[in-house]
Amino acid sequence: MPVKSLRLLSVLALTAAAGVFAQDFPTKQVVVVVPFAAGGPTDTLARNLGVALTGSLKQQVIIDNTAGAGGTIAYNKVAKAKPDGYTILIAHIGMATAPALYRKLPYDPLADFEYIGQVADVPMTFLGKKGLPPNNFKELLAYIKANKGKLNYANAGLGAASHLCGLLFMSQIETELTTISYKGTAPAMTDLIGGQVDLMCDQTTNTTQQIKAGTVKVYGVTSRQRVPSLKEIPTLAEQGLKNFEVVVWHGLYAPKGTPKPVINRLVAALQAAVKDPTFKTRLADLGAEPVPVAKANPEALRTHLQAEINKWAPIIKKAGVYAD
Questions:
Q1: pLDDT value of residue 287
Q2: Do 183 and 158 touch, CB atoms closer than 8 A?
Q3: What CATH number is attached to the domain comprising 289?
Q4: Domain of 156?
Q5: 115 and 155 inside one domain
Q6: Mean pLDDT on 191-213
Q7: Contact 13, 20 (CB under 8 A)
Q8: Measuring CA to CA, which of 16, 86, 160, 221 is 20 to 30 A from 122?
Q9: With contact defined as beta carbons under 8 Å apart, do 201 and 248 qualify?
């Protein structure tokens, strides 16, 4: 048989095998890699999503917390994973900021992944320790100006959403705060509640209960519109920070080369999840919401990721923040 014919038969055989594989997918548990420690806001979102995906995929979805290096370890782990759909990644805004924050990355956000879709948008809240004198945002700005160099700002580490929120805040008010970086959101929040640090910006999935319990002071939310579960709290834009918006979007990714039929199956499961009433209710209780179905697809995620890379690169460059 001619060599060309043998090659064609091989390609057809592989294509047929991939089709059968994809048709049966999934036949075992699916692992969602979370780039941060358990108990944080992304982990909370992932676990609620996992429940919704389990119902659609008819297989257990488990969470794998792979923390470290601002998410880089987890991103690289999934980029190098077997492209079969059984290892996927949930990543937030850090996927867009990593190219500007890190001089060298072991992966390429735009080239090393297949895109599944956006998952949810999570606003942030700007908080102060309970004993901080200002009682509203206007008073806070005056207090910061009057106490230059005396106030500190906690974040969950380089590249974390809380870090990015702080960079944008300091850029807009043209005043530097002493930055204290923690290894995760939980220890930073613990010190804010304990009064060891003055200010912090964090996702509503992690702060709503603290705000309602009165263990911290809240000065505003970072979305364009008020958060329904915290509707009494005005946005920072309402209070004078024009065009200030930090919404922590999350997306689902698979390793490059994952068969398209498998991606399609994962997209269908994601779209079922964002429409799931229980998932919506759980997120609403945390001050977040799933994206519309129109955003839960590969092209919408790719477009949004590129736009966010373009948005954050100049802000990070201006701040002069880099990691090796």
A1: 83
A2: no
A3: 3.40.190.150
A4: 123-230
A5: no
A6: 94
A7: no
A8: 86
A9: no
